[in-house]
Amino acid sequence: MGDRKRLRYGMVGGGLGAFIGAVHRRAIALEETADLVAACFSSREEKNKETGEFYGIAQDRLYSSYEEMAKAESAREDGIDFVSIVTPNATHYEVAKTFLEAGIHVACEKPLCFTIEQGEELEQIAKEKHLMFAVTYTYTGYAMVKLAKELVAAGEIGNIVNVNAEYLQDWLIDEIGGGNQTTTKMSVWRTDPAKSGISNCVGDIGTHIEDTVAYITGMHPKKVAAVLDNYGMDLDLNANILVEYDNGVHGVYSCSQVCAGHLNGLVVRIFGSEGSIEWVQEEPDYLKVTKKGQPDQIYHRGTGYITGMAAERNHIPSGHPEGLTFAFANIYHGFMKDVLECVNGHCPEKNGDYPTVSDGVAGVKFIHAVVDSSKNASVWTEV
Amino acid sequence: MGDRKRLRYGMVGGGLGAFIGAVHRRAIALEETADLVAACFSSREEKNKETGEFYGIAQDRLYSSYEEMAKAESAREDGIDFVSIVTPNATHYEVAKTFLEAGIHVACEKPLCFTIEQGEELEQIAKEKHLMFAVTYTYTGYAMVKLAKELVAAGEIGNIVNVNAEYLQDWLIDEIGGGNQTTTKMSVWRTDPAKSGISNCVGDIGTHIEDTVAYITGMHPKKVAAVLDNYGMDLDLNANILVEYDNGVHGVYSCSQVCAGHLNGLVVRIFGSEGSIEWVQEEPDYLKVTKKGQPDQIYHRGTGYITGMAAERNHIPSGHPEGLTFAFANIYHGFMKDVLECVNGHCPEKNGDYPTVSDGVAGVKFIHAVVDSSKNASVWTEV
Amino acid sequence: MGDRKRLRYGMVGGGLGAFIGAVHRRAIALEETADLVAACFSSREEKNKETGEFYGIAQDRLYSSYEEMAKAESAREDGIDFVSIVTPNATHYEVAKTFLEAGIHVACEKPLCFTIEQGEELEQIAKEKHLMFAVTYTYTGYAMVKLAKELVAAGEIGNIVNVNAEYLQDWLIDEIGGGNQTTTKMSVWRTDPAKSGISNCVGDIGTHIEDTVAYITGMHPKKVAAVLDNYGMDLDLNANILVEYDNGVHGVYSCSQVCAGHLNGLVVRIFGSEGSIEWVQEEPDYLKVTKKGQPDQIYHRGTGYITGMAAERNHIPSGHPEGLTFAFANIYHGFMKDVLECVNGHCPEKNGDYPTVSDGVAGVKFIHAVVDSSKNASVWTEV
Amino acid sequence: MGDRKRLRYGMVGGGLGAFIGAVHRRAIALEETADLVAACFSSREEKNKETGEFYGIAQDRLYSSYEEMAKAESAREDGIDFVSIVTPNATHYEVAKTFLEAGIHVACEKPLCFTIEQGEELEQIAKEKHLMFAVTYTYTGYAMVKLAKELVAAGEIGNIVNVNAEYLQDWLIDEIGGGNQTTTKMSVWRTDPAKSGISNCVGDIGTHIEDTVAYITGMHPKKVAAVLDNYGMDLDLNANILVEYDNGVHGVYSCSQVCAGHLNGLVVRIFGSEGSIEWVQEEPDYLKVTKKGQPDQIYHRGTGYITGMAAERNHIPSGHPEGLTFAFANIYHGFMKDVLECVNGHCPEKNGDYPTVSDGVAGVKFIHAVVDSSKNASVWTEV
Q: Where is the GFO/IDH/MocA-like oxidoreductase domain (chains A, B, C, D) (predicted)?
């Protein structure tokens, strides 16, 4: 019998109507190589059943608890190869740990967990059990972000001397001053420490800046000096962060959820001694590259002059926007490729091109350092 | 037993590696409401088998010819509800006719067919048999195109007085002067009259302009005055077209496959007595709306101020690009909703929001009028 | 005594408050090489006197008629070297002819005149008398338009295969349907045949498209097929024009004064076999250049990689917008350089880099052909 | 005898070929209300003479030293009304002081001077002598910056909650690592503490951010936490600055001269509880305004919906870029209006709309606080 070509996966969370669960399912569907066969979509029995029926999950593989699911699936010969965890943030740690301990590969929404200790524990278990563990930091999945990484690695912009990145949104602007009656359930959730941990804005989107910059440049914050703004809420809605990387270079990150007119404004600009690159998430199929003393160049995804990873992860012809879901699919592509190799008996020594549990831990450390600095008069704080 | 909630569909064409087949499958997958259960992916047995295995099609529902498939599926109690036709253009007519005659709903890639007679015949059969028939003119599926349509209908820009639309690409630039050794297979195919009919550029992309403008404005070309450029090839690579609509308003369409730097540059601008709208396919989540004497307004998909069809067909939060595949999914959404109603015994009297066989016929008529005008010294030619 | 370094000039028209007179004066002032010493600013004595005093014109050189001015100035030893004509369009011909016959160099606002015969007569007189004659088609004065011309001439985009240019404005949108009570004096003037000649929109702005494209490409329309829209007014407010150049290449021009949101939207796109260029007047310091199969390039005015005419006519550092007045100044620069050479006794055999009376004549011919074609069912009409 | 309508001015610095002198002369020329009648263009006799001849300065008013000029002009009945100081930065203080003491109004290039004490002394003298003193912070002269100020003042964006501004250039990128052989004279000058004071980048461009934000918002930095990068040079080439304003709101400023592809990238974004505004210097005729929960709005200079100061300082029709020189002219407009009132005997009690010596002092204080913070481990430092 030859190697398997398709994977079986399960989902925890993601009942009908839940946003992020649909993103994960659709991203996996775009890859066309894995089938959803088991789930615990919701702790509410009715919702769980309704969703299971809609997706045609066999009754004996629709579970009322994730513990039960992990146990039963790991016992089956045709059990799931990996689980997608799309539950509320506060539960990621417990759910992920349970599946890892059951010997099942894990893809988990970000943030990985709330404390550095939790993150390092998950990292350790995955390592010991040789399990793949993806944390779905979406934006590194975009083809043009991959191109950016390769251009930097190839020395196209020389030595990096400056980083300027931001992630601006406006969906919590009504929380300014302590919130109001139009507050949505989601915004309540985001700004509740019990559900979001020690940070709202930095934890939700600031960490994407950190991850995307680290992916492109290979540079990690060594220390940060930050000022957070809560505007009367319990958690931060806005943050400005000075960064010093491990190589001594400085940068600045800004993230906010109160900037009117900015919807999902992740913008990453890397400046080097020989040139610069700029990527704007809202127009993700372009990359602006300027070599010192030359005209700006606008690279377009899917064209003949683009090679390497950005070309490999190209799905539709140039000029036809791929959008977020393909970026997500690219992350699953790398993860599922690794899982498939494990399933077929030759687990990779080195992870493929996707964010892993280690990146998740780095994110948690970053959040903690930023919050600590802000509480301590913005002094430089080690990450 | 209640109404069915999911559909079964089959595919003709779309073997592994074929571009447009994957787009259709992925678009349907994004909708999460239909399952691929039967297919004739390729006339080449090996390719057909390989693709069928990859997608887990049961052996008895993987057919070696579309005629056989139509016959067998229409005979099954659990036969397919609709077929997606993603074969080469020259075969659309025959395949579509076969499935219609077998009583199966049809979704067909554009162009619908080569002659006006063929198109009208298909239209007639579908009508007589009360079958749904979608022609997948992609661009009307975009949320912001739907918003444009609603703004125009609501009189937001007053009476339309001018239309300026273009669709510029550059992928056939090397055909100028008669082609060269780097000519790709696809370009050979596009510029071969046997495979592309009487027109290449107008047939492939000019017709999208016509369809998108008609969708937004409800205005149809009454006559055209056109000049086509072949640059030494058998078929056109470039076209400029003066248009007079049924209401006497004039417009101009330009389409080209030799405009360096333009990848998939469909741009539609509608000018009215009270304002204007502009939509650019390469940045599809925006719509520029200018009311007379006021600042330009940039609408963003997915925001709270967007209502109606554009809000209903919103899939991911504002600021996260949806991309082409969701536009395609939106077309299937409308079509599949109609099909599901038919399946459940209450066929709609009026089609939902997607391009139908009638739009496909309009496209064929437009192509013929444009080609005729160009051959006849650009005189005004009735559509 | 050495050569003169400064010029003396006079102005006809341009009383205080008149827009275009100020543009000419300021453009000349930016050049810092000519002094305004004589004028007939207005036929209204009070206005003439007030303006003369403001600008410190000597009383004996402030004239009540242009005929008197031409006569007196040509008789003085220190008479003006050239005259700037900024009177209403209907008078350009008479005024220009008068000064030419008095042996004075002429810079005249566009359009040069109303009939082809008038234009050719002016051209003939200037030629016979070896007088310089600039027609201030503004847009060829922009540095990046000069760069475009040089890139085309250097073969950077190969052989030109397609031209797509437009000039869209919205300031006459309220004239649709026959005008209304808010009609401004200027719009009344523009749409009155007695004051604007046979065309409003094509004459006012369409002719700029023609001139700018001709400047960049060296290609002149051989014939045109046009449709004009008057929307109930006596003259055109909108035009779409198919063009065939002398080398057989086709293009399309659109001009309009009823396109909401477009203020002064001159956009020129030239497509060649090896690449393309695009220039947008509202952001004039950039030039988009795309070589076939390469990323788009955005050239910025004033940078080190820009050489030739665009570098010579650079006034302020890159990144600091120069604006329209410098474009105008560049036109005067070329003209005044020629005039200064004449004054110093060595008139140039070939005109410098600015639009001359011959370009003015070409513009008048273009307008006539476009209007004729539109009146004659859009048939192709020789220019 | 009535009031005077024109002013007489003198210039110190600005010999032929000097960049900033030409900007000042041209800006004044655009205003058309003042005449250059006296100067000390250069300390080099030949250069001074040549420039004086070119501009037709009377021989007895072309001075070999600014001290002599101040003395002689203040003694003349027809002496200059104001002086424009366009000398190297290190001399501003001495020259300005000399003319103030001679009772002559002053317009001075920024930075005003090097030390806070110098600045406050100049401020004091001007105040005592009732002399007008403009410091030409260019960017507040732009019409759309004036509109921004008025929209903020009118409460259109609610209470300001966040500021994000940057000024990125790339012209000193070759200084990274200590400079190299292609170093230009200007860059040597900029990075020499003797000629530039304690800061290069913050002093040259960071101070423009501070001034422009203060102009728009009325908010002044109370303290700053900054990190400067010298990259091996004596002075800073890059800076990231956390800001706390007097009202407790936070912001972030970034300035750099090593960001490839950024030419003169001043971008100011002000975020309020009800909306936001964004202004980009390289496209200065636009202002992006987003009200909470509404589409973005793009305001265009010169349109009918723009009123107030932005409309008053409009020079050419909408859609025709005005550029930097008009912004500069607007500053001189306000200053010269005040000077003219003084000249006519009714000095204004409150300065008009232009940056004064007080703004110059604020700039010097800002620079000092930023440099101090950076030297002191980025701790928050009072301005």
A: 146-278
